[in-house]
Structure to design on (663 residues):
């Protein structure tokens, strides 16, 4: 009975979504405050209903209710509890319900934190959010019902895809969806502003926190997915330019551009039209990613290859929302004022340069991802656009951007002095070049481009710290004064520095592991040693193991340094009997920021086994840098000036000060 209640709650959510979409929109046109307030009540109700439906499906997984087809297809009674829960979103139907839950959650947040929004704008935002929710509610109910029953109920389930039975995949999709769907709020603000015909600096202030939150979550989701693929798939790589990876990376690039463009709009009342366009583009890329993953046009470990009808439905959603938003933009753009002017050499100019590079990079990734699909659809010819294309085009685009990143915070608004900023960054560049010379010498004249890449990363890290150093006046004022200035800096300044610093750290990790990693493939017998990264890896033997829903063959290795035992590591081959699928569990040992990575191949008749061993220098810098970026986003969000309610609190404070003298 509870399953039917969950299904009924989803139907009610569709009904309340329709109310949320239509009533406040009409109220905004009529300037009817009562009708506009209906949107807030409906948004909370819709979220509560979807949350209840999601709770019901989760309960079915927890208790292994195999009368529910979705549970039967993706769970098993012996599966560990954490993977029973994560199995809720480890399939198409459940993940779409999670998508809808997060969408309605953000709508509820707009209600809770949007008390200072103009009534008309808030009503229009909630109406657009509801329209998206209605579309995806219909998609779930008509094509992807997670509550469909099986009669009679099977005695046991078919289990979850083994590669998804991992803690990384329990965390990765929710984080990714919080980023994907979070940009829907920015999209709704853009469409609402176009409907209202009014876009100003206050609008940018309202949009920035939502953009920052979505960007932070998407950064976390992409990072977690990269690390999961690295350690779980046994291939030793951290990024493959897989089309589904690209589907999450494109909105990240556009969202990064939106974040910087909204800053210019808020501070200088410039780039109005461009910022609105970016808000539409970013969520459009999120919807495109949803289509690519769920339409069946892609074959990937990340993709839900489903029947074509679902793809057609999502394509229709894509056309309606993207086409509708761009059509509205085309109709309204001529009535919008472009905003303030500024010199090319200024902080605004640096941020515009940032936007040009990021949007061009997103377009490049989009082209490389869609071109093979379009070519196959038109000519039936299959081609592959792989890493060489993306590394060359994307890498070349990023070099000027990374060089310019430290300049932006050091330039003044409206008109800056690039020479003065360059002088302030001289020490950072000099130290970076010294490090490059050291790397080049240490590797006996190794790859010069790799040495320069590491130098660029050092330059970015020190450039971010230089901004904080100069703002605090360290070296120019007394220590106590410098500390007070440093502690009193806005949190958004610290957030920016952390994000830029993290980008430098990630760059160092990418360059180091790409240029200096080593790989060894050996058919090893017990007692045999392989050298990698200055360590010896000795194969000690094999043993059999049994997990809750799998059997495994485990290889044990001893890591030696100078002939002395340092650690032991195990790598295994697992076999999931229900799914009849094998997986490889890599053995990874960390030494500082570097890792020794061991992956098993086929066993041999003589008792040996094929082993792939990688030495991954500084690879943890890749994900460590993303942690700095996420921390930068969180710190910036904690800045009072970026909180959605800050303007309202400021007005209340001003009203109090005006009222006090009269008392």
């Amino acid at each position: 009975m509870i399953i039917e209640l969950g299904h009924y709650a989803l139907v009610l959510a569709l009904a309340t979504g329709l109310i949320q979409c239509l009533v406040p929109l009409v109220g905004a046109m009529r300037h009817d405050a009562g009708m506009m307030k209906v949107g807030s009540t409906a948004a909370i109700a819709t979220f509560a209903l979807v949350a209840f439906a999601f709770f019901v499906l989760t309960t079915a997984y927890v208790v292994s209710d195999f009368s529910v087809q979705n549970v039967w297809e993706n769970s098993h009674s012996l599966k560990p509890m954490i993977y029973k829960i994560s199995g809720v979103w480890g399939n198409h139907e459940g993940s779409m319900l999670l998508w809808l839950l997060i969408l309605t959650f953000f709508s509820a947040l707009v209600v809770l934190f949007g008390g200072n929004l103009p009534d008309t704008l808030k009503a229009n935002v909630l109406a657009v959010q509801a329209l998206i929710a209605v579309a995806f509610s219909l998609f779930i109910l008509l094509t992807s019902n997670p509550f469909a029953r099986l009669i009679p109920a099977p005695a046991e389930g078919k289990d979850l895809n083994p590669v998804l039975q991992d803690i990384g995949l329990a965390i990765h999709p929710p984080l990714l969806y919080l980023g994907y769907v979070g940009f829907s709020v920015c999209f709704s603000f853009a469409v609402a502003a176009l409907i209202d015909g009014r876009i100003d600096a206050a609008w940018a202030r309202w949009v920035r926190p939502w953009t920052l939150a979505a960007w932070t979550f998407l950064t976390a989701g992409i990072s977690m997915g990269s690390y999961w693929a690295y350690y779980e798939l046994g291939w030793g790589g951290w990024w493959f330019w897989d089309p589904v990876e690209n589907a999450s990376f494109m909105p990240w690039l556009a969202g990064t551009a939106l974040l910087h463009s909204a800053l210019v709009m808020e501070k200088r009342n410039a780039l109005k039209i461009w910022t609105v366009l970016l808000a539409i583009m970013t969520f459009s890329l999120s919807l495109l990613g949803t289509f690519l993953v769920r339409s069946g046009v892609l074959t990937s470990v990340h993709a839900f290859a489903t029947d074509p009808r679902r793809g057609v439905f999502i394509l229709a959603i894509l056309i309606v929302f993207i086409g509708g938003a761009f059509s509205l933009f085309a109709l309204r753009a001529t009535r919008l004022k472009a905003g303030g002017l500024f010199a090319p050499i200024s902080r605004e100019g640096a941020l515009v340069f940032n936007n040009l590079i990021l949007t061009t990079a997103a377009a490049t990734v989009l082209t490389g991802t869609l071109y093979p699909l379009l070519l196959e659809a038109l000519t039936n010819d299959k081609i592959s656009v792989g890493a060489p294309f993306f590394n060359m085009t994307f890498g070349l685009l990023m070099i000027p951007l990374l060089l310019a990143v430290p300049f932006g915070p050091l330039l003044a608004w409206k008109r800056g002095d690039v020479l003065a900023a360059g002088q302030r960054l001289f020490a950072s560049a000099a130290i970076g070049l010294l490090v490059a010379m050291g790397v080049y010498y240490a590797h006996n004249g190794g790859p010069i481009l790799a040495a320069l890449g590491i130098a660029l990363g050092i330059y970015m890290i020190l450039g971010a710290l230089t901004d904080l150093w100069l703002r605090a006046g360290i070296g120019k004022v007394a220590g106590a004064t410098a500390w007070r200035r440093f502690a009193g800096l806005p949190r958004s300044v610290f957030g920016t520095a952390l994000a830029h610093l993290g980008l430098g750290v990630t760059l160092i990790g990418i360059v180091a592991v790409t240029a200096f990693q080593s790989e060894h493939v050996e058919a090893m017998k017990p007692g045999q040693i392989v050298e990698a990264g200055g360590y010896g890896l000795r194969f000690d033997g094999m043993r059999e193991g049994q997990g809750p829903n799998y059997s495994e063959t485990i290889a044990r290795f001893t890591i030696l340094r100078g002939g002395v035992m340092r650690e032991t590591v195990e790598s295994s081959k697992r076999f999931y009997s229900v799914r009849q699928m094998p997986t490889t569990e890599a053995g990874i040992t960390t030494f500082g920021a570097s890792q020794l990575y061991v992956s098993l191949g086929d066993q041999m008749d003589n008792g040996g086994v094929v082993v792939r061993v990688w030495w991954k220098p500084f690879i943890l810098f890749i994900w460590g840098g993303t942690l700095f970026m996420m921390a930068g986003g969180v710190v910036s969000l904690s800045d009072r000036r970026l909180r959605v309610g800050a303007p309202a609190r400021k007005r209340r404070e001003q009203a109090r000060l005006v009222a006090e003298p009269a008392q």
Q: What stands out?
A: Strands lie at 518-524, 529-532, 535-546, 551-561, 564-576, 581-585, 587-591, 594-603, 609-616. The first strand starts at residue 518 and ends at 524. DSSP finds 20 helices and nine strands in the chain.
